[in-house]
Amino acid sequence: MAKPILVDNQKKHYYYMDILNIMATMAVLWLHTSEYAFEYKPHDPSWYISLIIQVVFIWAVPIFFMISGANLLNYRDRYDTKTFFKKRMLRVLLPFIFWSFIWYAWNHFVMHQDNWSIKGFINGIEYDTIQPIFWFFYFVIPIYIAMPFLSVLATKANKKVVTYIITLYVIGVGIINYGYMLLQRTPDQMVNNVPLVLSTGVGIFFIGWYLHTFEITKKVRYWLYAGTGLSIIFMILTTIVLSAIRGETVRDVYSVFSIGGFFIPLGIWAWTQHRFDITWQPSAKVATWLRKLSGVSLGVYVIHEFLIMIIEHVFSLSASSWVHLFILPLIVWLLSVIMILILQRIPVVKRLLP
Questions:
Q1: pTM flag (> 0.85)
Q2: Among residues 214, 280, 278, which one has the least CA distance to residue 12?
Q3: How many whole angstroms separate alpha carbon 132 and alpha carbon 9?
Q4: Which of 40, 46, 219, 291 is the most exposed place for a label (fewest CB within 10 A)?
Q5: Transmembrane residues, as ranges (predicted)?
């Protein structure tokens, strides 16, 4: 099926990952400006359009997970575990706590939602009630904590072990848990007691490492493309049908932790990796901008909801309007990038927007 990519991972810069990072960041904005899909209105064409956008761009966060897996599961090739934790604390944990506090303050002083207290902030951090889109951190941070032993598994010599982990993830999360979710049933005790591959989405991190480490054949790549297309069609149609039956948008159908949510990012990854392979070398100017735009992804992630709220309020923008669905994500992305690039020039602030 695959053979090792014979390239020195320590020296080569993979621009396809920069492109994936930029694409995924933009995809997040498309997701968060098409939330009209959550309001079940089957007689409104905008509901169907927003639903299609939701499904088509559901690969955003899984791509981030895959990039993390590709970059970090082999961290031992570059530095020791102490350095790894130091880097993760500065790049992820510190920004997570800081921006959770900023959002907690925003919710209280601007949105008038939460009581202002240390206990309230701690509870918000503990139960992920401050900013819903920060669920990303609650998955990625535990993976980082487990990385010292996960990285031992992620070696070319352990290819079969990694394949086994990915297979269990697909079966357990993508099929069994997904089936329970669609049937509105609680997963059984046996499924719940397989934590390594079922509880943290670890399979997505391993598949990122796998696709980065081993070169897939043209035939497999086309199968992944087909899986992406079929998954999109399946999730759109199934969401429409189940939503009609239940009288509400059944968002669980297009969950990232589903068989479709697994295959869609694989096709996106395979296409980008093939189109911008290891031989592709952009001009110096393009290379600089790819690194810059890729480097603002986390910053854009934590601030873009501020801009969406402000623009919606100032311009009284309806969530069902075409401007909201198609123009707003581009405007918010551009403004977010400009803001982050400016803020990153400030030494102290730069650490909070790595």
A1: yes
A2: 278
A3: 35
A4: 219
A5: 14-33, 45-67, 88-106, 133-154, 161-181, 193-211, 223-247, 253-272, 293-315, 321-343
